[in-house]
Write a structure and sequence with these properties.
Blueprint (H helix, E strand, L loop, with lengths): L2 H6 L8 E2 L15 H26 L7 H32 L10 E4 L4 H24 L6 H30 L17 H23 L13
Length: 229
């Protein structure tokens, strides 16, 4: 949801934070996105070697948990990441006000970038559960002659998500903008309210989770998957 907005804003919240890892080295704001990839690389072996065997001993399924359960777990982790992101952003805004830099968009807020690490790790975990689970679902649960069609539906999710993201951000930007230029997506991130947007995303994801739980109860797997959530 944030991708289109992130590309257009010059001063992102993580750019205003203290990104130093030593007295002479500062990491770039954009490189923090690598934490998602690193968390995926580090956590996939843990998922395959630890989580799946434990889940298999409990559920009796050779996959550990079903595809729909995997997707549902990813959605829960996504909600949790948005909640943590909202709390961290609220902390950053309060810190900016306390130290008197709220009106200085280029000033560094005395708050270390390590506060952002948990939400990035949870985003990586969301990829491991939800995105891989979706890919498996769209590939395995369609007839053999329609495998490519199933994968095309899977990839279309990202395109539709980009359109919806741009639309949502545009609408919220217009509805929340004020005469002084401040709003949820103000160019001065210290006067913006990205925390409200994170809470909104958490709520939308919660609604999506409820819808997923409702429809998945009546879903029947083609293969031997166990009971759907």
């Amino acid at each position: 949801m944030l991708l289109s907005w992130l590309k257009s804003q010059p001063y992102l919240p993580n750019k205003t934070m203290d990104r130093s890892i030593s007295s002479s080295i500062d990491i770039s704001a954009a490189s923090l996105q690598c934490l998602i990839g690193f968390s995926v690389v580090l956590l996939v072996p843990i998922y395959d070697c630890i989580f799946v065997p434990i889940a298999r001993s409990i559920t009796g399924s050779h996959l550990g948990i079903t595809k729909l359960q995997r997707i549902g777990t990813g959605m829960v982790l996504c909600i949790l990441s948005m909640v943590i992101a909202a709390l961290v952003e609220r902390k950053r805004l309060e810190t900016a006000r306390v130290y008197g830099v709220a009106d200085s968009p280029k000033a560094k807020v005395p708050m270390r970038f390590w506060w952002l690490v948990p939400q990035y790790i949870l985003c990586g975990m969301t990829n491991i559960f939800a995105m891989i689970g979706l890919q498996e679902l769209f590939y395995d649960e369609v007839p053999c002659k329609l495998k490519s069609v199933g994968l095309s539906f899977f990839f279309s999710i990202f395109g539709i998500g980009e359109f919806l993201s741009s639309f949502l951000i545009s609408i919220i930007g217009k509805l929340t903008s004020r005469a002084d230029g401040d709003g949820w997506f103000s160019s001065n991130s210290n006067r913006a309210h990205l925390d409200y947007f994170y809470w909104l995303l958490a709520g939308l994801n919660a609604l999506g989770l409820l819808g997923s739980l409702y429809f998945s109860k009546s879903y029947n797997y083609i293969g031997d998957q166990g009971i759907a959530i």
